[in-house]
């Protein structure tokens, strides 16, 4: 089973986000932060993962010459044989399929990942105790 570039980009972005969360947990960063700072840290990690994903999807887009006018038939003689017509159609079909696949993953990820990130952040913010700005955790950790 061969993985397509958009799927590879998705897996790398998820791995980066999980690695950032584990790195924060191992270093004990989240235990020293207030609830709101933890929410912002989580959203920051998710944003970094989303940036990695968008870069991966960007590089999986087909190259510009495939979709531009470069290589189009100039005269009717260029497409006189069915084999030449078939070749042109196959080249452009492959580029369009790759483009739509990449855009699908980009839209799906933006809607799901960003929506999930903000929804969980807002839920955690709603449960956070209301106090003075800059108040620390109840554990007294600095």
Structure in words:
The protein has one domain. The chain has helices spanning 5-27, 35-59, 64-67, 82-127. The protein has 142 residues and is mainly α. The chain is elongated and about 75 Å long. 69% of the residues lie in helices and 0% in strands. Helix 1 runs antiparallel to helix 2 and helix 2 runs antiparallel to helix 4 (82-127).
Relevant terms:
142 residues; mainly alpha; 4 helices
The low-confidence parts are none
Write down the domain tally: 1
Global Rg: 24 Å
Number of helices: 4
Q: Give helix and strand order, one letter per element, not per position.
A: HHHH
Instruction: Report mean pLDDT, rounded to a whole number.
Output: 75
Shape: elongated
| Overall number of strands | 0
Strand % is under 5%
* Structural class based on helices, strands and sheet pairing: mainly alpha
Main sheet: strands, sense, barrel: none
Quick rundown:
By secondary structure, the chain is mainly alpha-helical. The chain contains four helices and no strands. It has one domain.
Task: Give the topology, please.
Blueprint: H1 5-27, H2 35-59, H3 64-67, H4 82-127
Helix pairs in contact: 1-2, 1-4, 2-4
């Amino acid at each position: 089973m061969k993985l397509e570039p958009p799927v590879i980009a998705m897996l790398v972005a998820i791995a980066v986000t999980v690695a950032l969360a584990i790195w924060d947990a191992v270093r004990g960063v989240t235990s020293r932060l207030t609830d709101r700072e933890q929410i912002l840290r989580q959203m920051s990690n998710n944003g970094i993962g989303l940036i990695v994903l968008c870069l991966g999807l960007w590089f999986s887009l087909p190259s510009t010459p495939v979709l531009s006018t470069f290589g189009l038939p100039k005269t009717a003689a260029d497409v006189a044989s069915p084999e030449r017509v078939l070749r042109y159609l196959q080249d452009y079909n492959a580029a369009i399929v790759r483009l739509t696949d990449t855009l699908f993953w980009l839209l799906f990820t933006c809607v799901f990942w960003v929506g999930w990130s903000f929804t969980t952040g807002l839920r955690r913010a709603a449960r956070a105790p209301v106090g003075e700005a800059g108040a620390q955790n109840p554990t007294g950790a600095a």
